[in-house]
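Tutorial, part two.
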Amino acid sequence: MKKIITLKLIIGIMILVSSCSEESLDLKPLDAISEVDVFNDVNLLQAYVDAGYASIPNNFSGNQRMGTDPLADLAYLKNNRGEGVPEYGQNTVDALNVETITKNAWTRNYFGIRHVNSYFSGTENSSISQNDLDPLTGQMLFLRAYFHFDLMSYYGGIPIITKRFKINEENFDVPRNSIEEVVDFIVSELDKAIPLLDENAPKARASKAAAMALKGRVLLYAASPLLNPSVDMSKWTAAAAANKAVMDLASYPMTEDYRSIFLSRPSIADEVIFTREYNLEVNQGTWSGANTMYWPNGYQGWHSVSPNQKFIDLFEMTNGETPYLPDGVTVNPASGYDPQNPYVNRDPRLSDIALYNGVMFKDRDVQYWIEYEDDGDGNPSDRTEVAGGLDTHLSPIYSWEPSLTNYAFRKFTDPTELPALSGAPTEEFTPDIKFRKTEFYLNYAETQIALGNEQAAREAINAVRARASVNMPPVTASGNDLIEAYRRERAIELSLEGHRFFDIRRWKIAGEVMGKPMYGIDVEKLSTGDIVYSYGTKIAEATELRTWDDRLYWLPIPDREVKASNNALEQNPGY
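Running the prediction step on this input gives:
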């Protein structure tokens, strides 16, 4: 049976099959597609598999938070946006509001798992040939592994679900599996998926490389201090092998031009392994998308998520020195850094990732400066403003959406398009990248540091820094300095890609970096036209009640799920 599969039909299939009882297998409605049809027609089954990808988290569409980075320490979300950030930052997380913080991770992932389990139940006696079934089965194994990993990343040990529950099930009281059991299950799923998956699948679909990449990330997490308190070195060895395998994939070379990785035109970058793609039919949404949420108000953006000064200070000078000494206050005398000329001779990725005062963007320079009644030292306290640049609260354009840090993000935005305005659909096609090659150089470097192979770690880090558009001096540090250099490199390179929130937790350093005030920069334009920068002004909204508690290393299981399980689900400590 040949059918044209539309988006509505795919959604219909997903809802129909996920909600059917076992008795419906014997029925074939005259006015709908039956479960029998779906699991015995390769075209319909392909549509069913495609629908499973909808449960993968979407960092762009309809989400002002734009992923998990604002939950961590380097990006600021305007507090009036909410999005679970105040609850996490102020340690008011509980079992009732947790799904706001995780973006419905428990519900979304278990819905996806149920969809996958329905596939395996429905295809047990399918008439579709094994050759046609194998790549579909491989994708479903990948998705089931992905959903369990996403859950584990938030909650730790979670129930492993591999069967489709029936409506008349005696009970749904399924306890949690241990973290070790969840990791073993995920790896087993991926090991079964890899030989079934295509090597050249579209980047928005699971491929052999995508399954290998997920395995590498899972094993890295499993070896990390939060999940590996006994410091079992065999876990680091396993993580090293898995990440080296991805690092060595010739089909996904690192892209030399950093900025182009996060654009989709003329095509998705070679190094991207797995991503959400957007097009005219499936775009980043209305009143949504990277351009709207990241850009300065002078470009009709909302500044919803902005870099803070701590993030900007991570970027080294082009001579490889950090701007500040480890105290974060004293200028590094070897760096050549000038706080009154702060963006000169910095790591080239700074202008690829962030927008700051004076940088050229689109058709003009970004303007975060304010003029005052009298010239001063840049500090705005108790002074009368008389004028402001196009990207401030004194701008005639979107004056109500200024940046509170006086920075904006450029990464993942498309300068050839406008933000989504007046509720009109956007045409922002920048991909929501889940796995890309460079991550696995850094993952491998982390495993080598843990295993004591510092030279191998430096070589992997330096391969990332040596790309043509970056061209930063090689890292030569060792010991704790190497760990810090690695973590700085990872924070910069993988910014906004969904890593920082999970990294600081799995490293168990959140107590050191969270619960502290956030800072921006103040920019004054003098009557002479000169610019003066002032540091040390706290972002008031972000500093109120900011705190940290070690219970936040794991998030609470939603209260309704604990109750529905008749308390078979043991709640995480502290909740």
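Confidence is low (pLDDT under 50) at residues 1-11, 13-27. In part three we will examine how such features are distributed along the chain.
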